[in-house]
Amino acid sequence: MKKxxxxxxxxxILSPAWSQVGPxxxxxxxxxxxxxxxxxxxxxxxxxxxxxxxxxRDGYLKVWEQEMKAxxxxxxKVFQTVEYLEGQGANQxxxxxxxxxxxxxxxxxxxxxxLWNNQDLENNKKGQFIYADGKYLWEFDHKAKKAYVDxxxxxxxxxxxxxxxxxxxxxxxLRDRYDIRPDLSDAAVKDIKNHVVFDxxxxxxxxxxxxTKAQMILYTNPTQDSFMLPRRLWFMNQRSKYSITWELRDxxxxxxxxxxxFAPPKLPDETWKSEWRTKPAQTPxxxxxx
Length: 290
Hints:
The chain has 290 residues and is of the alpha+beta class. It is built from five helices and twelve strands.
């Protein structure tokens, strides 16, 4: 099994543990070749945006900024797809891992993500369970019987790309951190009505290490509760040859979420242990979830 690590919520780690690999059909070979091309060829240097395209982008980002400032929290069904290339040469194959579950987020730094393998929904050992309670981020690994913990930033998303894109409150800061370009072709999102698509390229060295390209699709119907919330988020890392797609379905804004909604569950039994994922310089005392 191949494990993929990527920063997710605030300092969390995704650990897919199930691979769905079929026989290498002609379509499968085509998929591998397409993925290999996408993951191995660096994008060309981009020219500055035409003024009218920049104005189109900035208009949407300004509305997005206003909506995010007023946002308290969200809840959504989640479909996560991880794709990566495995093997070499003629033995190379495209592996696809699929998870389903729910996500809750509350500003500035609380989150609850519970995902199950879509082929084995009763098996927690193949799931992903992450809880950010405002002070610490917990990842429950049911296979290892460990709860990994990280200390969170005091406020906001810190360096995390996903939360910066989701919950950032300044369009200027977003443009400073990323090269953001509207995708006016709409070739890949014909299934989504009332939306706008942005391609996102990293500028900062740390972001460049985390992802090579991202794409965000926002709802644009002002009469819907999902207005300016994400419908799809996609991240690709060409160096590590993998991509992650987040499909957020039935996403809604929530004003009634509280800290108690993000408390991690207690450890399942006495055989479980908790340990630091990355030990802080000054180690605080952290009690096991109760």
